[in-house]
Design brief:
The protein is of the alpha/beta class. The protein is built from seven helices and eleven strands. It has one domain: Spore Coat Polysaccharide Biosynthesis Protein SpsA, Chain A, CATH 3.90.550. The chain has a seven-stranded mixed beta sheet, sandwiched between helices. It is globular and about 50 Å long.
């Protein structure tokens, strides 16, 4: 049975809950001394953008925000200030996959888990809804956008080994949505280091389905990214 009952926005949250893990335990090493998660973005901390969207979204039953040790106190303060009633905070690990694993341990009674990078502020409700509809149909959903640039595969010595076919290349984003059982098992059995959740699921042998993301859904990693985010924020229309 489809949990979404047609259009995601018509789904009854009482039937099943969607759990969200927002990964925000990084140390902002490439931000030249700026903590990107709490950097101001159009009047509020960058982290608050995606959490606010999930807090407002009727499809979301629980939000786990994973932070590093030094940011936990600021996270608790922000939760109180912004009345995040759905939010649980937890401590992350050394690597992204360690932080996701810690976040998954806090998720309760959810059929689906949506994992999102806290450094991607421009998470729209439509992106969540489209992802849930895709996951409901195919079993998984990874927001992605077609690559615009020509991609060269290097040989390790600054020479081109191969030019990849651009029409088959997608840049993976978050949110990434999976059934609770599959994503939990993927991380429990993970031996190698991975940079996104889809890779962990792929290693179990499951096919992962892509759906159209948003080119504005950037990940803030460098000061240049933060400058671009402030440009996008000026034109961004908040969800109702």
């Amino acid at each position: 049975m489809s949990i979404l009952g047609g259009r995601a926005r018509d789904w009854n949250p009482g039937f099943s809950k969607i759990g969200v893990v927002i990964v925000a335990a990084g140390t902002s090493q490439r931000m030249t001394g700026v903590n990107k998660l709490f950097a101001p973005l159009k009047g509020k901390p960058l982290l608050a953008w995606s959490v606010d969207t999930c807090q407002r979204c009727k499809l979301v039953g629980q939000i786990v925000v994973v932070l590093n040790d030094k940011d936990l106190a600021r996270g608790r303060k922000l939760r109180k200030e912004r009345n995040w009633s759905k939010v649980t905070l937890c401590r992350g690990g050394a690597r992204r996959q360690d932080s996701v694993t810690e976040g998954l341990r806090q998720v309760k009674d959810c059929c689906w888990v949506m994992i999102h990078d806290g450094a991607r502020p421009f998470l729209a409700t439509d992106l969540i809804e489209d992802g849930l509809k895709t996951a409901d149909e195919f079993g998984s959903a990874v927001a992605s956008v077609p690559v615009k640039d020509t991609i060269k595969l290097g040989d390790g010595e600054d020479s081109v080994k191969e030019t990849l076919r651009r029409d088959r290349l997608w840049a993976a984003q978050t949110p990434q949505i999976f059934s609770f059982d599959i994503i939990t098992r993927a991380y429990q059995n993970l031996a190698a280091e991975v940079t996104d959740d889809a890779t962990a699921v792929e290693r179990l042998g499951y096919k992962v389905h892509l759906y159209m993301g948003d080119y504005r859904n950037i990940k803030v990693t460098t000061p240049e990214d933060l400058a671009l985010a402030r440009v996008i924020a000026r034109e961004w229309k908040q969800d109702n």
